[in-house]
C-alpha cells in the first residue's frame, strides 16, 4: 500500500518495517546478551592474559575456588545488569508515542 502512495524504500523501512519488528529486535537482544558473554569468556579461556575468563582458568589450575566463584558471580551480575538494561530500553521504546497502538 505504501508503494501505491509512492513511498520511498527508506520511508517503507522507517515507517513500516522497523516499527513492526521492534519487539523481535528486543527479544533477540535479550537472548544474545548471554551468548555474547559466553563468547567473550570462551575467547578469554583460550588466549587471554587478563580478564574473567583468565581468572576462571587460572583459579582452576591453582585450585583457588574463590577466584573461580568470584569470577562466575561477577559474570552473573554483569549479565543481569545488561539484561535489565535491555528491559529498560524495551519499556522506553514501547511506551513512546511512536510505537503505541
Any overview of this molecule?
The protein is mainly alpha-helical. It has a domain at about 35-100. Helix content is about 80%, strand content about 0%. The protein has three helices and no strands. The protein has helices at about 10-45, 50-60, 65-95. The model has no long low-confidence stretch (mean pLDDT about 85).
Brief descriptors of the model:
mainly alpha, 3 helices, single chain, elongated, 101 residues
Write a concise synopsis of the structure shown.
This protein is mainly α and 101 residues long. It is built from three helices and no strands.
Main beta sheet: strand number and arrangement? none
What string, H for helix and E for strand, traces the elements in order? HHH
Arithmetic mean of pLDDT: 86
Total number of beta strands: 0
Structural class: mainly alpha
Q: Oligomer, anyone? A: single chain
**Content of β-strand:** under 5%
How large is the radius of gyration?
21 Å
Number of helices: 3
End-to-end C-alpha gap: 19 Å
Helix-residue proportion: over 70%
Poorly predicted regions are none
What is the overall shape?
A: elongated
Chart the SSEs and their pairings.
Layout: H1 9-47, H2 52-61, H3 65-95
Helix pairs in contact: 1-2, 1-3, 2-3
